[in-house]
TrEMBL record:
Protein location: Bacterial flagellum; Secreted
Protein name per the record: Flagellar hook-associated protein 1
NCBIfam families on file: flgK_ends
Lineage summary: Bacteria, Pseudomonadati, Pseudomonadota, Gammaproteobacteria, Pseudomonadales
Database matches in InterPro entries: Flag_bb_rod_N, Flg_bb/hook_C_dom, FlgK, FlgK_D2-like, FlgK_helical
Location of the Flagellar basal body rod protein N-terminal domain: 5-33
Keywords: Bacterial flagellum, Cell projection, Cilium, Flagellum, Secreted
Residue ranges annotated for the Flagellar hook-associated protein 1 D2-like domain, each copy included: 340-425
Domain Flagellar hook-associated protein FlgK helical: 92-323
Length: 671
């Protein structure tokens, strides 16, 4: 009977091993499955006088071949790889938009200035003027289209965040359910291998969506934390993620964690997974691209409008604006966003005062009931706030060096204590630019003043055309007519090497170079005519040159350019904007260079992300291979095990047959 019992124990153990092997084979393609192995041990032997006699075998455990360390490695690598993939997917779209010859700004800028140069060569021809208007329209549409694409990408990110939050909540509930089932199953002291695999796989899938930290609890449950330790799953208790419009900016959706009755915004703490990648892209690339593009558009529109306003059109009137007013009231009100939950109502406006000082950044403004404090969000620098007026109030801003930020804000009343505002001076600049000048003859290509030498001069002195270097935009034609009258006559005095004449009240003449006190005959002298209108207080400054060697009594005249149909001096000044460092001030860059810098920055980041993504994919594959070397199912190995266990089974059956034969022989001896 002992021999039969031993044989039966072998059959049972071998059958369990065959079952485990069959289970492995059937789950070879199951994601997250860890292969299992039946662990045998000898049964308790019996003492028989002459020694202990074995009683067979038994299955001690069906072991799950898995390593928490290798599983954690796969989870971490999965989170990093998916974060970079999500980042890469977004930035590659932006890189293609910015550098494309159809949607990019550089080709449109080049076409605009080419058309301007063509029109300036024949300023009285309508064909060139019409072509310039068409290119201006195309340029503004290029800015608008690129802004719309950025806006669309931001909207899609908001949608994706909502979808990811729903998937995260679903998987978190799944993990909590597995925690509860595993905790109940382990009450018998046996580990539920398949449930453990399913839980690990659910957590791995969760790590594709967001970075998670896993903590093993004493009751065999796993607690999951996201961000900087915010609990997502604790035992069978689950917190919920929700995506809501941002309190500071409704267009930038934020992530909130709801735990019972407590809700907290955790967007800044989120990292890893697809959600972390989308948020990182939005914070580091998309927002700065919005603002940089807006800075270029605002600076371009303002520079062109100002220069046109300092010239005369074909009717002899001050030039009109080619592009819409950057401080149109319908725009200025939208540059200030009140924080959700602010107390009271405050009417606010943000006006651009100097596009050359604009920074491509948003600002945060807080009021504590007494003082305003501000911070530039792009670099975190504290910005000082100066308040003037008593209602409406005007706020001006300066950095630690005392440099203005290029804008000011007005409020009809002081806000309540604790109120916060988000200031976006450049955010929508590319979307707001519009071509508003419809009549080509209103393009101000002519300068406002002209100069000429008297025909009977005896010397070789010559006067250059005056250039308006300072003045209002648009100029006031009546004020200039008051300055020049029928013409200012300047006569050369050989004794003092000076020129002079009768100037109207408010006008002064000075020497800039090479001497500041008189003319230097034979050299090119630069002079300046300054004028402040006594009635309005508007100031004008003209610079012009006197060269050659004038003779005593030689005269020169300065006058209002009332017949400047064929004059292109202001058109040439407008063309000069193409190479002028306008964006970011004199130390900044030209329009093309500034846009090229944006394209280069995005392109460099795109290349870096691609490299990092490839490296992360390699790390993930290595982690998966390491995990599979222990936990993965090999069909070749399992096939060998089947043959081995089949032989064991046959051998145990043979022992049973022998035991039966012996038992039959024993019974036969007593018959």
């Amino acid at each position: 009977m002992s021999l039969l019992s031993i044989a039966l124990s072998g059959l049972r153990a071998t059958q369990t091993s065959l079952t485990a092997t069959g289970h492995n084979i059937s789950n070879v393609n199951t994601p997250g499955y860890s292969r299992q192995q039946a662990i045998q041990q000898t049964s308790i032997p019996q003492f028989a006088g002459y020694g202990y006699v074995g009683t067979g075998t038994q299955v001690a455990d069906v072991r799950r071949l898995a390593s928490d360390f290798l599983t954690a490695q796969v989870r971490t690598a999965t989170s990093q790889s998916n974060e970079l993939d999500a980042f890469k997917g977004q930035i590659e779209q932006l890189d293609a938009l910015l550098s494309d010859t159809t949607t990019g700004i550089s080709p449109a800028l080049q076409k605009f200035f080419t058309a301007l140069q063509t029109a300036s060569s024949n300023p009285s021809a309508s064909e060139g003027r019409e072509a310039l208007l068409a290119e201006a329209q195309g340029l503004s549409k290029s800015f608008n289209t690129l802004y719309d694409q950025l806006d669309k990408q931001n909207g899609l990110i908001n949608q994706q965040l909502g979808s990811l939050a729903s998937q995260i909540n679903s998987l978190a509930n799944t993990v909590a359910g597995y925690n509860d089932a595993i905790q109940k199953s382990t009450g018998s002291g046996v580990k539920p291998n398949d449930l453990l695999d399913a839980r690990d796989e659910a957590i791995r899938q969760l790590s594709q969506l967001v970075g998670v930290q896993v903590v093993q609890q004493d009751d065999t449950s796993l607690s999951l934390f996201i961000g900087t330790g915010q609990p997502l799953v604790v035992g069978n208790k689950v917190s919920t993620l929700q995506v809501v419009p941002g309190a500071d900016d409704p267009s930038r959706h934020q992530i909130q964690l709801v735990s019972g009755s407590v809700t907290q915004t955790i967007t800044p703490q989120i990292s890893g997974g697809q959600m972390g990648g989308l948020l990182a892209y939005r914070d580091t690339v998309l927002d700065s691209s919005y603002n940089k593009l807006g800075q270029i558009a605002l600076t371009f529109a303002d520079a062109v409008n100002r220069q046109l306003g300092q010239g005369l059109d074909l009717s002899g009137q001050a030039g009109g604006m080619l592009f819409g007013d950057i401080n149109d009231p319908s725009i200025t009100a939208l540059r200030v966003l009140e924080r959700s939950g602010n107390i009271g109502t405050v009417k606010t406006n943000l006006q651009i005062t100097d596009t050359g000082k604009l920074n491509p950044s948003d600002y945060r403004l807080d009021f504590d009931g007494t003082n305003f404090t501000a911070r530039r969000l792009s670099d975190g620098e504290s910005i000082s706030v100066t308040v003037s007026g008593t209602g409406p109030y005007t706020l001006s801003f300066a950095d630690s060096k005392g440099e203005g930020q290029g804008f000011e804000m007005t409020l009809d009343t002081l806000p309540a204590a604790g109120n916060r505002f988000t200031l976006q001076p450049t955010r929508s600049g590319a979307g707001d630019i519009r071509n508003t000048l419809l009549k080509a003859e209103q393009l101000a290509f002519a300068g406002t003043a002209r100069a000429e030498s008297t025909t009977n001069n005896r010397g070789t002195g010559s006067i250059g055309q005056p250039k308006l270097v300072g003045g209002p935009s648009p100029v006031v034609v009546g004020e200039l007519q008051s300055l020049f009258g029928s013409g200012l006559s300047l006569s050369f005095d050989s004794a003092s090497n000076t020129v002079g004449g009768t100037l109207p009240p408010g006008a002064t003449l000075s020497y800039l170079s090479p001497s500041t006190s008189n003319l230097v005959p034979g050299q090119t002298n630069t002079l300046r005519l300054d004028y402040t209108d006594p009635g309005t207080g508007n100031s004008y400054s003209y610079e012009f040159t006197l060269s050659g060697v004038p003779q005593a009594g030689d005269s020169f005249s300065l006058g209002f350019n009332s017949k400047g149909i064929s004059d292109n001096s202001n058109a040439l000044a407008l063309s000069g904007l193409q190479s002028k460092n306008t964006v970011g001030g004199s130390a900044g860059a030209s329009f093309n260079s500034s846009y090229g810098g944006l394209v280069e920055r995005v392109g460099t980041l795109t290349a870096q992300v691609r490299t990092n993504s490839d490296a992360s994919a390699t790390v993930l594959k290595q982690a998966q291979d390491s995990r599979d070397s222990l936990s993965g199912v090999s069909l070749d190995e399992e096939a060998a095990n089947l043959i081995q266990f089949q032989q064991y089974y046959n051998a145990s059956a043979q022992v049973i047959q022998i035991a039966r034969s012996l038992f039959d022989t024993l019974l036969g001896s007593f018959r």
